[in-house]
Amino acid sequence: MRRLLIAAVTLLVPLCLSAMAVDTIAKIDGLHDQGKYEEARTLALEAVSSASQAEKAELYWRASRETLELGDEAEDRKESKDAILKYFEKGQEYADMAIAANPQNNLAYYWKSSNIGRWGQVKGILNSLFKAAPMKELLLKDLSLDAGHPDAYYVLGQLYRELPGAPLSFGDSDDAVSLGRMAVDLRVRAVQAGTEKELNYSFYLQLAKSLWKRNLSAAKRASGLAKKQAAWQSAKTPLEKGSAYEATVQLMAGSDREEARQLVNWITTELSKIASRTAGQDDDLQDARELLAEWK
Question: Which of 158, 179, 238, 288 has its CA 20 to 30 Å from the CA of residue 186?
Answer without folding.
Answer: 288
